[in-house]
Amino acid sequence: MGAAARPPAGTARPGVFVITGPSGVGKGTLIRLLRERVPELALSVSATTRQARPGETQGEHYHFLSDEEFARHVAAGDFVEWAEYSGRRYGTLREELERHTSGGRPVVLEIELQGARQVRETLPDAVQIFIRPPTEDALRDRLIGRGTDDAEQIERRLEVAQDELAAAGEFQHVVVNDRLDEAVDALAAIVRGTLGP
């Protein structure tokens, strides 16, 4: 499945950075600030079957696909990874990733735990980073504060988060998003340490 994403023999693959963690932990904010500090880092735009939230743009925030479109891409083997999360499907289209890496640009993927595990199999040299909240209460407060989910959805996300937090030990790097600046510093250090001067 990941063979098409491998570079020809004798060439170096630009850095591929996988950032995952529970819903509401602040992955999007951290990645936005990380890319301000490491401007050469491209963002891979994921595909999803969920509806766009207010302010989200097709092709910029996500590639919004119907269930049928997503299923066609799965059947054609077009995804580097895909997973179902909270009743919706999310995935990284191979062409989206290769659009960046074929030009020699490092790229960051913001994906869920299931997807991160698939990338570990298909792209074993990708750098995997897990973002965790300082406490479960802090995560609950963030989910409530962003105002995008009802109480039942928040409880479902928190149940999933418990399983995800238990998987943190699988990752090369774990960054605690307690103080935003410190978390971004830690992320930038990991990326810069991988890419070199």
TrEMBL record:
Pfam families named in the record: Guanylate_kin (PF00625)
Annotated ATP binding sites: 21-28
Keywords, comma-separated and alphabetical: ATP-binding, Coiled coil, Cytoplasm, Kinase, Nucleotide-binding, Transferase
Gene Ontology MF term list: ATP binding; GMP kinase activity
Domain Guanylate kinase-like: 14-192
Keyword Kinase part of the UniProt annotation: yes
EC top class, as a word: transferase
Reactions listed under catalytic activity: GMP + ATP = GDP + ADP
Domain of life, per lineage: Bacteria
InterPro entries linked: GK/Ca_channel_bsu (IPR008145), Guanylate_kin-like_dom (IPR008144), Guanylate_kinase (IPR017665), Guanylate_kinase_CS (IPR020590), P-loop_NTPase (IPR027417)
Role: Essential for recycling GMP and indirectly, cGMP.
Annotated family: Belongs to the guanylate kinase family.
Xref: HAMAP family: Guanylate_kinase (MF_00328)
NCBIfam families hit by this protein: guanyl_kin
Protein name according to UniProt: Guanylate kinase
Species this protein is from: Baekduia soli
Gene: gmk
